[in-house]
Design brief:
This protein is an alpha/beta fold. The chain has three domains: 131 residues, Type I PLP-dependent aspartate aminotransferase-like (Major domain) (Aspartate Aminotransferase, domain 2, 3-Layer(aba) Sandwich), CATH 3.40.640; 36 residues, no CATH class; 109 residues, Aspartate Aminotransferase, domain 1 (Alpha-Beta Complex). The protein is 36% helix and 18% strand. A six-stranded mixed beta sheet has the order 2-1-3-4-5-6, with helices on both faces. A four-stranded antiparallel beta sheet has the order 9-10-12-11, covered by helices on one side. Helix 1 links the parallel strand 1 and strand 2. The longest helix is centred in the C-terminal third of the chain and has 20 residues. The radius of gyration is 21 Å and the shape is globular. The relative contact order is 0.12.
Length: 297
C-alpha cells in the first residue's frame, strides 16, 4: 500500500478493524475512507460500494456491528470489490456466536473472530485467509515451529499455517476454543438462530415499550444484541443498577468510538443474548430497566 491506494471501511467498525487501517494509512500515505450510516442507523452499504474504485486495495467490514447489532449485506460489497480486484476482510467476532460462518459462501479473502465471544477462552482467535493471500504475508514474528531451518547465512520458514504462528501457542486456549465450537455445533445452528431470534424479538418489544428510551439501529434488524440510551441516565450508572439487580449488560463506547460519535453519543448500554438465555431473562431485564429509569428520574 502507498500513495494513491485506498482502504475502505465503515464508521461502525470495532477499533480492532478500524485503527490498524487508519494507522497503516498514516504510515504509507494511502487513502483511508470511512463510510457512514443511513438515516435509520444501518451501515450504508451503497456508500461502501460507491467508495470502491480501481484504487481500492482492501475493503474491511464487520459482519455484525458490535455497537448496533445490525448486519450489512456483504454480498453486494464483495461483488463491488471483486470488480476492481480489491481484497475483502471481514470482522466476524460479534457474528461468530450467532450464525454459521461459511467463508466459501461469503467469498471473502480474510475473516477473523475471537474465542471469548464464542463461549471460548480469552486470548485466542482465528484468522482465515485464502492460501494465495497468506502465502504473500511475510512473517513478522520469529521462532518456534515457524522455522524450517536456520544457519548463520540464512533462515528458511516453514509452510502454512506454521510460518505465521511463531513461538509456543496458547495451547490450552486453542483446545478450549475447539470445545466451544463443538458445543455450538452440537446445539445446531438452526436451533441457535431460532432461539436467539425469539429472544431478540422479545427484547426489542420490551425496549420499544419504554418511553424516552433511544434504541440504536432499526427495529427488526437486530441480531444478538441491542444497544440503547436514555437522555437522563448515564450508561455507567445504568449498568451499575443492572449489575446490582443481577443483570449483566455492557456500558461504554464498546470499542467503537467513531460509531458513538456518529450517533451523537459518548456511550450506550448494550444487552446481548446467548444460547443460555430465556424469555424469563428478557422479562427480568425489562423489569429492571423500568426500575432503573424510575430510580434515576
Amino acid at each position: 500500500l502507498g500513495p494513491g491506494d485506498k482502504v475502505v471501511t465503515t464508521i461502525a467498525e470495532h477499533h480492532s478493524n478500524f485503527v490498524p487501517w487508519q494507522q497503516l494509512a498514516l504510515k504509507t500515505g494511502c487513502q483511508f475512507v470511512c463510510c457512514g450510516l443511513t438515516k435509520d442507523e444501518r451501515i450504508d452499504e451503497q456508500a461502501v460500494c460507491d467508495a470502491i474504485d480501481a484504487n481500492t486495495k482492501l475493503v474491511a467490514i464487520t459482519l455484525l456491528a458490535n455497537g448496533l447489532g445490525v448486519m450489512p449485506e456483504i454480498a453486494g460489497i464483495v461483488k463491488a470489490a471483486r470488480k476492481v480486484g480489491a481484497k475483502v476482510l471481514v470482522d466476524a467476532a460479534q457474528a461468530a456466536p450467532h450464525l454459521p460462518l461459511d467463508v466459501a459462501a461469503l467469498d471473502v479473502d480474510f475473516l477473523a473472530f475471537s474465542g471469548h465471544k464464542l463461549y471460548g477462552p480469552t486470548g485466542v482467535g482465528v484468522l482465515y485467509g485464502r492460501r494465495a493471500e497468506l502465502e504473500e504475508i511475510e512473517p513478522i514474528f520469529f521462532g518456534g515451529d515457524m522455522i524450517s531451518s536456520v544457519s548463520v547465512a540464512k533462515t528458511e520458514f516453514n509452510s502454512l499455517p506454521y510460518r505465521l504462528e511463531a513461538g509456543t501457542p496458547n495451547i490450552a486456549a486453542v483446545i478450549g476454543l475447539g470445545s466451544a465450537i463443538n458445543f455450538v455445533k452440537q446445539l445446531g445452528w438452526d436451533d441457535v438462530q431460532r432461539h436467539e431470534a425469539e429472544l431478540v424479538a422479545a427484547l426489542e418489544e420490551g425496549l420499544y415499550s419504554v418511553q424516552d428510551l433511544r434504541v440504536l439501529g432499526p427495529r427488526g434488524a437486530h441480531h444478538g444484541l441491542i444497544a440503547f440510551s436514555h437522555p437522563a441516565i448515564h450508561p455507567h450508572d445504568f449498568s451499575q443498577y443492572f449489575d446490582n439487580a443481577g443483570v449483566a449488560v455492557r456500558a461504554g463506547h464498546h470499542c467503537a468510538q467513531p460509531l458513538l460519535k456518529a450517533l451523537s453519543l459518548n456511550a450506550s448500554t448494550r444487552a446481548s443474548v446467548g444460547v443460555y438465555n430465556t424469555l424469563e431473562d428478557i422479562s427480568r431485564f425489562v423489569e429492571v430497566l423500568r426500575g432503573g429509569i424510575k430510580y434515576f428520574t
